[in-house]
Amino acid sequence: MASASLVRRYYDALDDHDYDALEEILSPGFTQHRPDRTFDDREAFVRFMREKRPNPDTSHHLESVVTADDRIAVRGRVTDDGMTLFEFADFFEVTDGRLARLETYSR
Questions:
Q1: Rounded Cα gap, residues 67 and 14, in angstroms
Q2: Domains (ranges, CATH) in the chain?
């Protein structure tokens, strides 16, 4: 699967609360580093998104997606009822057709 399609599926899975689809596109060793926390594996990340996500009713609006081989950069906004809560920049790495690493920055 093309890298841009893979990351779009990632955001769709989050917005649709489709945690089975989310788990399928993340490698077992998936990690996410963000300013407020780090997830060291796919299981911890999916569990957090399913059970502890602070505001599960948000949507991700992608402003730009830039791909270079196995790396993808995404700039976007998280909204709730059409209001922007924050902007983000996500940097993904793909391994064996799955998302393996994510660095997230927000403001």
A1: 20
A2: 3-106 (3.10.450.50)
Tokens of 85: 């809560």
CA distances from 96 to 28, 100, 106 (A): 11, 9, 28
**Residue closest to 90 by CA, chosen among 102, 107, 77, 78:** 102
User: What pLDDT, in 10s, does the model give residues 8-29?
Assistant: 999 999 999 999 999 999 999 9
In the beta sheet, which residues pair with residue 77? 61, 87
What is the pTM for the complete model shown? 0.93
Helix/strand/coil for 33 = strand
Sheet holding 59-68, edge to edge: 37-39, 26-34, 98-106, 83-95, 71-80, 59-68
